[in-house]
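Good morning C.,

I know you're traveling, so I'll keep this short. The sequence:
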Amino acid sequence: MPGTAPQTWKEYAGRDSGPDSYQFGDLVRHLIHLFHKPQDASRDAVVDEDDCALLDLKAQRDQLVGHRRRVERMLARDEEAARTLVAQGRKEQAMLALRKRKQHQQLVNDCEGHVAKVDELINNIEVARIQRTTVEALQAGVATLKRIQREIGGVDYVERLLDEHADAAEAMQEISDALAGAGVAADDAEALAELSRLEEAHAAAALSA
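The tokens, ready to paste straight into the viewer:
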């Protein structure tokens, strides 16, 4: 933003210590802070509504499962009663017990269908929430990538640096070739000895400092 001081890597990553320059893991630290820091009140309300809706659906599913189990127990009692009545020769009562059993079986089937629909809805909501989190992470990652690319200077700037590096390397090679043509080879013994002497002198000076 115009008039605003550029953010350091330390601030961007949310580090409490260390230098302001980039440290390994700063991008990951930024993404962690991004998705764990408190969001605005409207976003919190959306998250709360999502959680409550999901909990309500799961509670309804549990109630349906409980109702189905109760009806299944009634179904077993109907079947046992029908067997007992048939053994006693009470045909009409046995027929009534079988009709009740059929009714209870239909209730069980209905409960299973409702539970399957609620389970499907719960799964769809959970998948959608995962997709939303993934999209948000991708959005943050793309924004970070673009910002880093702007800091680098873009493709044109990198290509210009590479060209300048190639030109500098070519110029050094030309100088080396010119010196070789003048009798000073790249591996000239005297030049190598002088280089070694200078390196030793520098090391000694560094130790004594």
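Safe travels,
E.
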